[in-house]
Request: fold
Amino acid sequence: MLGCSKLDRRFVLLAQEINEMPDVSPDTLGERIYYSFYSSGILLLLENNIIEQITFFIEPSEGFTGYIGELPEGIKLKGKDLEIIEIMGTPTSSGGGKPDMLLGYINRWVKYVRDNYILHIEFNKRNFISKLSLMLK
Reply:
């Protein structure tokens, strides 16, 4: 679904498929539109009517319930950081896992750059996946 138009049949039928109407809100400049499926733990970011990012909230946060569906690349919902790195290899980049004076604790994260997309995974303090995002390159 990443990269498809909001006119694409898959996007049009998404609310029906997951049995939830999204909360639709533009950013402050009106350049991006967020489709928040709070009860399903899914956030879609559209820019120029194209799905640029899909975020799965594995742990409840930011008003989202925890996502319970399938994840890309065979990643397990209850996956831990070292298990994922062992399966997927060395990440393209990584960071976080420490407190920040302004933002508080920043979750540890890893990023994998693929041919057509970027996979960004955040881990909680217990090293379990807390959030996973797919972004267009």
Q: What stands out?
A: The chain has a mean pLDDT of 95.
